Amino acid sequence: MQQKEDRQNTLRPGLHIVATPIGNLGDISARALETLRAADVIACEDTRITSKLLQAYLIKKPLIAYHEHNGEQMRPKIEAMIDEGKVVALVSDAGTPLISDPGYKLVRALVEADLYVTSLPGPSALIAALTLSGLPTDRFIFLGFSPNKSSARKKWYEKAAKIDATLVFYESARRLPDSISDAAEVFEARSAAVCREISKKFEEVVRGDLIELAGRYANTGSPKGEVVVVIEPPSGETSTDGSAFETKFLIEKALGHMSVKSAAAFIADLTGERKKEIYQLALEISKNKDARS
Known about the structure:
The chain has three domains: 2-122, Cobalt-precorrin-4 Transmethylase, domain 1; 126-236, Tetrapyrrole methylase, C-terminal domain (Methyltransferase, Cobalt-precorrin-4 Transmethylase, Domain 2, 2-Layer Sandwich); 244-292. By secondary structure, it is of the alpha/beta class. It starts with a helix and ends with a helix. It is built from twelve helices and ten strands. Helix 8 packs antiparallel against helix 9 and helix 10 packs across helix 12. The chain has helices at 2-8, 30-38, 47-56, 71-83, 103-112, 125-133, 150-160, 176-187, 210-220, 244-255, 260-271, 275-292, and strands at residues 14-18, 41-44, 63-65, 87-90, 117-120, 140-145, 166-171, 191-196, 204-209, 227-231.
């Protein structure tokens, strides 16, 4: 027992940023478990979620909630704990803290107070999705969560479309069909990957160009679970300038997942061409396809 206590006491007082599993509990590191066991207190987004993780590894520690709604009140308290010589572990509900959560404000406050901060590398949904996507990984940008409303989302996509890097963002499963449809309007036929339930039992990665993906989710509806979307950089996109050949290409792609009517409406909206003309072309392509099959 004394040996265990000695090991715990070797942790330096300060904030220890601890990455936790995004799905599979086995993904937690040995160092993360040692830190959680040695911490004086654990700061977390939701004490109920963190309690389940601690119970799985038989860890009993005081928990305090730290999130965007109470951060202003909690930061001075956490700073005071560390100043008194305590070890505070910071965890998020899943993955690496500070990635799309308000933890950076706490780190900034502690750095300004000249207090110790360290980070334990571990699971991150954005990195896992990037590695699963099959898209370029040498340069990427994380965009956080997309806006809720379609108009704001399209403007958000338009700004991102100019970035010469692979785009990674989190998306609500409920909004996914609309979000991918908006992305197809802006990015057109760029390749993308929708990564869902990473590291969990029903992990799924759907790859294709955005027009194909828009058709797929228009038909299947919203999936379940946590979603990360990855879109290739502009250097790899298929550009459309309204030429007959490229319009035909887009229609053929859309018809693989939509009815003639839906495909015509979608491509007309995408290209800005007249819906009636697109419908006639889509009808012709569909008939020729049926004749060949």
